[in-house]
User: What shape does this take?
Amino acid sequence: MKKTIACLLSVSLLTACTHPSQNRYGYQDVGQATVVEFGTVVSEHVVDITGQNTGLGAGIGAAGGAIGGAAIGRGAGSLGAMLAGAVIAGVAGAATEQALADRTGIEYVITMEEGETITLVQNYSQGDPSIKVGQRVMVQTSGMYQRVLPADGLPEKIKRPKSIKVTD
Assistant: This one.
């Protein structure tokens, strides 16, 4: 039973570690059209992102601690050990979940083609391309989520797409 709870805690917390970034898309992003605007990076710097603590780590920790504490002693001693185990493991579970949810990001200040300046904080993952000050970028917007991507390889001029006329 203890191994099962430890396994559930590990899997739950580890699956919460992946966040969208330049090279990582969430399943909900696949097949969704995004609006793209272009701009130039004015500044960039590394920031700490405080992750969301769902309470799952505390709950699983408390349950595991209560089960482990219940195996100690008899009667009131067993109850006391169970409560102490639940509190201690619950606090440890919450701290572990928070540590796994916290991450590093980059805040970009971008002046868009239209002259508007925006800031955008983006998750950073090892292996993401580096975006530097003065670099041309595209800002993708899909619903509430925005992402900054390098636009160096994209053309600066293109011909207007040919239209298709429908006739009866």
User: Anything to note?
Assistant: Confidence is low (pLDDT under 50) at residues 1-16.
